[in-house]
């Protein structure tokens, strides 16, 4: 082989050398004939080679249950999303079951609040009574997840017990554990502590186990950011802080290594499922958690993500169904096993219509 031919051969090899890493070790001369558009030429072919598939069974619908109302109340910041009474929510869950959604997560809004959030662990509280009603109506047809936090129950709107202007971490986790136990005893399948207090998962696990609730799962809000995307939720749950913000306990979204430490901590404390929140702005964290742990990964597509798509769709700037399908597929593609989304019911309807 002439020097020029050797040079040309070496250049061609280098051009496609990256393919060796993917197992392509022979016939480099064939690669210029590749046309990836062949994989997209018809709807049937695109379906055949689709790599990431959403299912209604991937989805969890968040539900706001408000004490003291008789009819559903639409949330101003989240058009199409409602606060339900413990009675009216039964119809909503029946629709979930009919669309093959497997799980809901409950957020309670009590009639009365105090500075210690005592109603959060009241056995006759709004979440506890709703759990019993769901279980009576649906048995094990739906997985019941409950949010375990104090922000909806405290008069000051923070996620913990306040002394002065500071949250007492250890007194707060005592209350969170009592709340989780009351949910488990009412019939919840999974309790999800979201207050971002140090040691909350361990405290809850210990109390559940001591009270014969060893089969109740814990979904840790393992990497929950101090995010602007939570704002519509605070309207929905009446949980805006009366002073300050939540940056002393929710995470700085600039710190992915700290997120990894939070995730590791929840694993060591006994979490069964790990959650990343918000979802779309943390796809990197979802991916990292997926490849670096063996735990199921949940991702919460939060209220702000819903409201942005809804607002744009209402102004006819985007196609709503296409936008939610694309965004939820991205979350699944990043590594989430389950996706909590206010669009869960609509997404399930889209998937069932195919």
Descriptive tags:
single chain, alpha/beta, magnesium, porphobilinogen synthase activity, 12 strands, eight-stranded parallel beta barrel, globular, 354 residues, ALAD, two-stranded antiparallel sheet, TIM Barrel, 12 helices
| Side-by-side strand order of the widest sheet | 1-4-5-8-9-10-11-12
CATH C-level class: Alpha Beta
> Beta fraction of the residues?
15-25%
The percent of residues in helical segments reads: 25-40%
Annotated CATH homologous superfamily: Aldolase class I
How is the CATH topology named? Answer: TIM Barrel
Q: Cα distance, first to last residue?
A: 57 Å
Mean of residue pLDDT? 91
Number of helices: 12
Class based on secondary structure composition and strand pairing: alpha/beta
Oligomer: single chain
Order of helices and strands: HHEEEHEHEEEHEHEHHEHEHHEH
The largest β sheet comes out as:
8 strands, parallel, barrel
Total count of domains: 1
Estimated radius of gyration: 24 Å
Active site: 224, 277
Pfam families: ALAD
Binding site for 5-aminolevulinate 1: 234, 246
Binding site for Zn(2+): 149, 151, 159
Structural summary, described in words:
The protein has a single domain, classed as TIM Barrel (Alpha-Beta Barrel). Helices cover 39% and strands 17% of the residues. The protein has 12 helices and 12 strands. The chain has helices at 3-15, 43-48, 89-98, 126-138, 169-186, 200-210, 231-236, 256-269, 283-292, 303-314, 320-334, 344-352, and strands spanning 59-66, 73-75, 78-84, 103-109, 143-148, 162-163, 166-167, 190-193, 217-224, 273-277, 297-301, 338-341. Helix 6 (200-210) links the parallel strand 8 (190-193) and strand 9 (217-224). Helix 3 crosses helix 4 and helix 5 crosses helix 6 (200-210). The radius of gyration is 24 Å and the shape is globular. The mean pLDDT is 91. Pathway: Porphyrin-containing compound metabolism; protoporphyrin-IX biosynthesis; coproporphyrinogen-III from 5-aminolevulinate: step 1/4. 5-aminolevulinate 1 binds at residues 234, 246. It holds the Pfam family ALAD. Belongs to the ALAD family.
